[in-house]
């Protein structure tokens, strides 16, 4: 019997998509579903992006582009990095991919041989595990529970790097928690990184323009320039510019490492579609009003979500300061029941919430933190209020399962 490669057996379909599909199915059945499950921005790119694309279609083109990315796009990326406080990069330090996901895949492929160790904190973005597993890397997870505000402590990092892992992967602002590290926290982690020169660093900073409360975005290479030679900074147009389907990701890093990514591009994708590059240049170099307005809007919605969740007895929701996610610890519900359904864990909770209240969320176990769930709050304010009220009433209707069982046996 013909067999597929072993790595295909290690690839799992995304847990987030499983819930999103169920929510879609309920919606198709006419149920009034509120979807907090999928991390897509609820806005479209600016008109100038469409104008650039329309203009491009009037030209004769459609040829192959370059593996690294169109020179004008590389210049736009370098300028964008500079605006984000990441100065000193040139075209030779950057390249593109089909979204940050493909950039990350390339990076892991370039840096990790089978059996090499990759370290990252939990909660983590689900694809970190999936990509590392496909490549046969050894994964070490550093648990950062809600009691430490889902943030990595310098001592934890120091201990983990003692074994000289090949790669340290770090995400700030975080999906799924929305946590953002302050400059002091980044500096403290950077001090540790300097002490461990045998580890590559991947900084997944794709939400860096969605930071609230004026705390700003900070990166290891800003506070310790010597880390630049082994740090790759990933970014994407998906969330900042309302362009997830356009699939543009990019990365800045040391020249030799980025050159290896370009070689992988030449074998995996050849190039980004030219029409996509045109759209990306327009988004990066045109008006930045939309991302700025969205940052304001999301920070207000964050307040609504956190206020509603904190009003529920026993629910603990560290206050997110970026992205568009909240990640409440809902373990107070475990061992209780809703409408006779026992809730033993996060998956039971999310299933019951979807079945009973038609609110779709993602179980925290998908992100390595099974006491929590992820709420993505990019939907309309009306949907947001409706969903939050339903979550509150779900909690209010929970009853003590042991009491119920005892009553049933009496
Ligand atoms: C933390 C993180 N990194 C990377 C990605 C990939 O983004 P894209 O491939 O759309 O650029 C996502 C998408 O949800 C994400 O949340």
Task: Name the descriptors.
alpha/beta, Aspartate Aminotransferase, domain 1, binds pyridoxal-5'-phosphate, 15 strands, 410 residues, 3-stranded antiparallel sheet, 7-stranded mixed sheet, globular
Describe this structure in words.
There is one protein chain. With 410 residues, this protein is an alpha/beta fold. It has 2 domains: 159 residues, Alpha-Beta Complex (Aspartate Aminotransferase, domain 1), CATH 3.90.1150.10; 241 residues, Aspartate Aminotransferase, domain 2. The chain contains 15 helices and 15 strands. A 7-stranded mixed sheet has the order 2-8-7-6-5-3-4, sandwiched between helices. Strand 10 and strand 11 form a beta hairpin. Helix 5 packs across helix 6 and helix 12 packs parallel to helix 14. The longest helix is centred in the C-terminal third of the chain and has 22 residues. It is globular, with a radius of gyration of 22 Å. The relative contact order is 0.16. Pyridoxal-5'-phosphate binds next to helix 5.
Q: How much helicity do the residues have?
A: 40-55%
| Sheet with the most strands: spatial strand order | 2-8-7-6-5-3-4
User: How many domains, in number, for the residues?
Assistant: 2
What is the strand content?
5-15%
What is the H/E order? HHEHHEHEHEHEHEHEEHHHEEEHEEEHEH
The total of helices stands at 15
The profile of the biggest β sheet is: 7 strands, mixed
CATH topology of the largest domain: Aspartate Aminotransferase, domain 2
CATH homologous superfamily assignment of the largest domain: Type I PLP-dependent aspartate aminotransferase-like (Major domain)
Average pLDDT for all residues: 94
Q: Which structural class do you get from the secondary structure elements?
A: alpha/beta
As a whole number of angstroms, the C-alpha radius of gyration is 22 Å
CATH structural class of the largest domain:
Alpha Beta
């Amino acid at each position: 019997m013909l067999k597929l490669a072993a790595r295909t057996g290690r690839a799992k379909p995304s847990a987030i998509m499983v819930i999103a599909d169920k929510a879609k199915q309920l919606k198709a059945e006419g149920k009034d579903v509120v979807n907090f499950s999928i991390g897509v921005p609820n806005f479209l790119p600016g008109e100038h992006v469409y104008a650039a694309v329309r203009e491009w279609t009037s030209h004769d083109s459609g040829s192959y582009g370059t593996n690294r990315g169109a020179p004008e796009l590389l210049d736009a990326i370098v300028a964008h990095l500079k605006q984000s406080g990441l100065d000193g990069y040139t075209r030779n330090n950057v390249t593109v991919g089909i979204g940050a996901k493909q950039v990350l895949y390339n990076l892991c492929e370039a840096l990790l041989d089978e059996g090499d160790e990759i370290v990252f904190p939990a909660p983590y973005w689900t694809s970190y595990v999936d990509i590392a597993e496909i490549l046969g890397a050894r994964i070490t997870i550093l648990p950062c529970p809600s009691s430490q505000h889902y943030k990595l402590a310098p001592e934890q990092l120091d201990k983990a790097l003692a074994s000289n892992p090949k790669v340290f992967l770090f995400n700030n602002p975080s999906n799924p928690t929305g946590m953002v590290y302050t400059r002091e926290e980044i500096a403290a982690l950077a001090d540790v990184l300097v002490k461990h020169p045998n580890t590559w660093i991947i900084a997944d900073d794709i939400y860096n323009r969605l930071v609230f409360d004026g705390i700003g975005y900070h990166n290891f290479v800003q506070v310790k320039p010597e880390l630049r030679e082994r740090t790759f900074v990933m970014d994407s147009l998906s969330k900042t510019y309302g362009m997830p389907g356009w699939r543009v990701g990019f990365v800045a890093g040391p020249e030799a490492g980025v050159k290896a990514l370009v070689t992988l591009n030449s074998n995996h994708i050849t190039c980004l579609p030219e029409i996509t590059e045109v759209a990306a240049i327009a988004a990066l170099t045109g008006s930045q009003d939309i991302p700025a307005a969205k940052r304001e809007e999301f920070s207000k919605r964050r307040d609504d979500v956190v206020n509603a969740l904190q009003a529920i007895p026993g629910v603990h929701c560290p206050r997110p300061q970026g992205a568009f996610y909240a990640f409440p610890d809902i373990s107070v519900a475990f061992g209780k029941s809703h409408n006779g359904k026992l809730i033993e864990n996060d998956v039971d909770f999310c299933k019951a919430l979807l079945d009973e209240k038609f609110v779709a969320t993602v179980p925290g176990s998908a992100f390595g933190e099974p006491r929590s769930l992820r709420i993505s709050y990019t939907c309309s304010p009306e949907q947001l209020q409706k969903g939050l009220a339903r979550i509150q009433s779900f909690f209010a209707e929970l009853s003590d399962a042991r009491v119920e069982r005892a009553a049933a046996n009496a």
